[in-house]
Amino acid sequence: MKLLVSEQRGPEELKCFLALALTGTKFTTGALDASAAARGPQLVVADPKAQEDARVFSANAVCRYVAALANALLADDLAVDEWLEWESAVLAPWVRAATTAQDAPAPEVRAEQLAALLSAKDGDALAAAAPPAFLFGSEVTLADVVAGVTLREALALVPATQGEAPVLAKYRAYVAQLFAHGEFAKATAAPAAPSVADLSHLDAAQLAGCTQHNVLALIETIFGAAIAAAFPGLDVPPVEVTRTKNAKFGDYQCNSAMAIFTALKGSPSAAKAPRDVAQAIINALPANPAVHNFSVAGPGFINAFLTPAFVANRLAAVLRHGVQPSPPAKRLRVVVDFSSPNIAKDMHVGHLRSTIIGDTMCRILEFQGHNVDRINHVGDWGTQFGMLICHLTETYPAWATELPDVQDLTKLYKAAKERFDADAGFHQRSKEQVVRLQSGDATARQVWQMLCDISRREFQQVYDRLGVSLREMGESFYNPIIPRVLDMVRAKGLMTDSDGAQCVFTTVHKQPFLLVKSDGSYLYPTTDIAALWYRLHELEADWIVIYTDYTQKDHFDLLFEVGRLAGVLDPAVHRVNHVGFGTVNDESGKRFKTRSGEVVRLVELLDEAKARMKAQLLARIESGQTTLPREQVDAAAEKLGYGAVKYFDLRQSPTSNYIFSFDRMLSTNGDTAVYLMFAYARLSSIVRKAGVDMAALVAQSEALLRPAHATEVALAQELLQLPDVIAFIMKDLSSNRLCAYLYTVSEKVQTFVTACRVLGSDEQSSRLLLCEATLQVMHKCFTLLGIEPLDQI
Questions:
Q1: Under the phi-then-psi rule, with left for phi > 0, alpha for psi from -120 to 50, and beta for the rest, what region is 697?
Q2: Is 438 exposed, middle or buried (0-12, 13-18, 19+ CB in 10 A)?
Q3: Is 613 exposed, middle or buried (0-12, 13-18, 19+ CB in 10 A)?
């Protein structure tokens, strides 16, 4: 339903609002066309069977319709109906005549007329009776809504006197009682003076910008307090604050006015437009040291600027204490499962994504103060090991004394797989080796341990190059606890026998979760449910993040569902996320491989990046573009090359595929690690050339930091955003947000140093401090990405 009312609301509109409120009818409001205003309010009722909506005209008709529809307010009682008829035929016409006639009678004459009308309605017996609480019965009826409102208007035309007629005094007392409580009191209450938000609960240092808490959260808190003060008790959606797209209009924008306007519709306090709501919020905003200069734009957007003092204080905090995290609400135990290469296989380009995305997420979580377990869930168990053990012992009789290197192991794996697929006898012997391995056979365990040790040493060389640390907990680690976890699943009555195998069926997924094969051996799902239990109950993890390729999404969705059903996982207590990353492709869009069709070894990829970067640096030295000493070229090329490979992957959305290109990732232009490091080196050079005591300058930073030029202000405000960027990453695990942020900072660095002279300028001290603060923020971003920047290139 929609109630159409005129802009100037009076007693007829009040009747409608009271009837709708007292019957609990949900409705919206709209503007009544000026040409129809004389007929009073209209109620538009949707009629799906008719071409046009039905309309109810006049306030009394609207009240009757609403009360009858709700079967409320004794709408069908004859005594109530008599009051409505009397109001319509007698009282309302008298009020109109008394207020519109050109020769309106004197007040004492109006008093006599109204007393006569009321006495006639009451009769002689009731004229002097005690004032009633309600016109009929013991509760509010439609008579009170319709006649009570008009009686209030009529009595307002007759000033109270000491010796007035008893019937007037009686109904004056009735009206006073009626409008003193409930919906009547709400509807006629005088607008309260605008309340101003109380920000005393906020930390004064945080409000002044002297800490490094999330700026966005602070602004949301300020606006939230203003909304609560302006609209007390209103149930509205969460406060919506974003950064403005155009810095000319403000730094932040509150977009909550439209939602509040919608929530107010249908109430007597409904605003005419969202802009009025926005202005009410601004009126409730107290003066504070964080934001100022509020304005309303468009349909109701509230723009606000950070105060210069707040910005300066935040940068001074960075300069004095380094980049610090915004403290989390709770420090969590987080298990991050990433990298996870397979034993007896090389780490290839496919492992790059899992390894560096997982490492970056760990670094961010650790920076936030969480207790992080970096778990390497290596593939060191299962059917493939029966195949490998069988093939190695049959093919390499001297395996115990002549250890093959990892490349030989890779060939071993391929050869073993070919035999496994083609030779039924070998296939059976391999399955028997799996049973021996799982039962603890000494020879099988010795071969297995040798394969693991060789692979582990090769893996560690890659991790050392990438600067990644992990704790190995391979599939084999969970083997001893599998029986206990399977018993838990059985105890819940979840296990189903399927052709000799044991699995779990769910109502959410079509495919079963296979836990035990028909021969009694275990599978990957068996290990994974055991790992889930161990991490949640032995490691006591609050949160688990697992990085694998996107093809395993259905498996992990099913794992988490079975874990929930088995009581292993409690969604109310535990957070679990699987991040399925995309593939690394070549220029044709196919998976990145060598010319011979083999997967690209990660070691070779890193070597190539370093070699190409070394050639670039030597060329820069020959052309006089850098003063980098030749003896530092090799180390610099390694940092740039490895950093370029990492950044090129990390800047992609974790879930998307991307095309691998050395030319693009090693470019000095665009969104590359090389470009970012050049920006960092340029700032480092400026600070180095200044030759000033930066520690002494930092000690005076609150007084000296005064960004004034537009490019200075833009850079300074961007430096404040890191805690907010990290907060978003905590929600959606999109670690590429950090790359986007670092690139934005670098772009603003280039704009700033191009537009503003630092050395020798009147603003040198302030601008040097801005450069130093920028270096600290950029260095922290590089560190979180696992990249070591260079201060000279």
A1: alpha
A2: buried
A3: buried
- Enumerate residues 6+ apart whose C-beta is below 8 A from 318: 212, 324, 719, 773, 776, 777
Is 43:65 a contact under the CB 8 Å cutoff?
A: yes
Tell the residue number behind the tokens 């052309």, with chain if given. Answer: 623
Cα gap 606→641, rounded to integer Å: 7
Q: What is the pLDDT of residues 46-99, one digit of tens each?
A: 777 776 778 888 999 999 999 999 999 898 899 999 999 999 999 999 998 888
* Helices (H), ranges, 708-763: 710-719, 722-732, 736-755
Q: In which element (H, E) is residue 154 found?
A: helix 142-156
Question: Are residue 89 and residue 183 in the same domain, yes or no?
Answer: yes
The predicted pLDDT at position 29 comes to 77
Q: What is the 3-state secondary structure (H, E, C) of 368-421?
A: CCCEEEEEECCECCCHHHHHHHHHHHHHCCCCCCCCCCHHHHHHHHHHHHHHHH
Distance between first and last Cα of the chain: 70
CB 99 within 8 A of CB 158: no
pLDDT at 268: 64
Structural domains counted in the chain:
5
**Mean of per-residue pLDDT scores for the chain:** 90
Residues 757 and 632 in one domain: yes
Task: Report residue 327: phi and psi, to 5°.
Answer: -55, 135
Residue 497 contacts by C-beta under 8 Å, 6 or more apart in sequence? none
How do residues 449-503 score in pLDDT, each as one tens digit?
988 988 898 899 999 999 999 999 999 999 999 999 999 999 999 999 999 999 9
- % of the chain surpassing 70 pLDDT: 96
Residues 401 and 363 in one domain: no
Give the pLDDT band of residue 127 (cuts 50, 70, 90).
low
- Going through 32-171 in order, the beta strands assigned E by DSSP cover 42-45, 54-57
Looking at the fold, whether 481 and 399 belong to one and the same domain comes out as: no
| Cβ(197)–Cβ(228) below 8 Å | yes
Q: How many Å is the maximal CA-CA distance in the chain?
A: 126
| Helix intervals (H) in 24-77 | 59-70
Of how many residues is the chain composed?
793
pLDDT tens digit sequence for 269-283? 678 889 999 999 999
Angle (CA) 567-570-576 rounded to 5° is 120
Pairing status of strand 658-659 against strand 584-585: parallel
Query: Which tens digits make up the pLDDT trace of 323-381?
Result: 999 988 899 999 999 999 988 888 888 789 999 999 999 999 999 999 999 999 999 98
**What mean pLDDT do residues 519-539 have?**
94
Are 79 and 174 contained in the same domain?
yes
Residue 512 CB neighbours (<10 A): 17
How does residue 559 score in pLDDT terms, banded at 50, 70 and 90?
Answer: very high
Q: How many CA atoms lie within 13 A of 614 on its CB side?
A: 13
How far is residue 776 from each of residues 484, 671, 680, 720, 788, measured CA to CA in Å?
50, 20, 10, 12, 13
DSSP-derived 3-state class of residue 431: helix
Domain containing 521: what range?
A: 333-378+475-581
SS3 content of the chain, % helix, strand, coil (to 5): 55, 10, 35
CA distance 203 to 406: 58
- The CB density around residue 671, as the number of other CB atoms within 10 Å, is 19
> Residue 404 carries which side chain, given as an amino acid letter?
P
Domain shared by 486 and 463, yes or no: no
Residues pairing with 35 in the sheet = none
